[in-house]
Amino acid sequence: MAWSMGCLGFEAAAAVCPAAFQAYQKYYDIVSAFSNVNTREGLAELSLVIDGMEGLRDAIFSDIPKLMSALDLDDAHRFSIFYDFVFFISRENGQKNISVQRAVGAWRMVLNGRFRLLDRWCNFVEKYQRYNITEDVWQQLLAFSRCVNEDLEGYDPKGAWPVLVDDFVEHMHRIYNSCDCSSAMESQLSISNTFGGINPLPGSKRKCPTRLKPNEDVDLSDNFTRSVHLAPLKRLKESPVITKYGVWEYNAGTPLVHSPSDYCEDANLHNPRGCLQNSPSIVEDCLSKGFEGCISMKCSF
Q: Does the domain made of 114-179 have the CATH classification 1.10.101.10?
């Protein structure tokens, strides 16, 4: 008969888990219209028979993995029937729905290796679902697992999905968006660590140098800090003296305190454009002193 086509071996399946196999055989005949009874009436009668034997429903539920290994479930249609049978056998005390704990345990058994988001789905249901799982949610999840990829591609937000499935998709989108933001921040930190001297600060594209106090030492190895902070410091300045031979000499060690004009002069000394920033009068004064030295040197001879 058509039923035997769903088994790798009729006798082997019956020997591995006889109670579970017989229950599934009767269920398969009822839903496949191989029996003459109405589907709803047939399932109700089968449920009463199973509940009439204490502990039989739990025993069948525990043997589901053994039953799966004995059946040929590669065909999508046969697997759908078996999937619905698992929901049927998971119901307790004639209830139409199943508890969250029971549903999660059944999903982990029957959808293992068939649903890539199985762990995330089960964790989501355990954490957020407060009500029992309906048969509609159970059946729609199988359709969801077949048409939606791990990255949620294939999900139609306008589709007639249960609310629990829609909530799960929104939950996954939040997780994926959070991961994308974290990856972007890690990439930015990686670039910043590569260029340690120009780490970005809030509101700035480059690191601002720390201002030094008036009497604080300067690290001359840092060219950038040296060029910014050298001018305002008090230091020894060499004073020029013209000899009788017109040669300029310097008496080092004369301490001078900078005036505002000295600040500008020192800044020009460390500015590559300082020569362009000197006033014409200063340049002419230096040239005239040089010429006077040359004339005085000739007259002395």
A: no
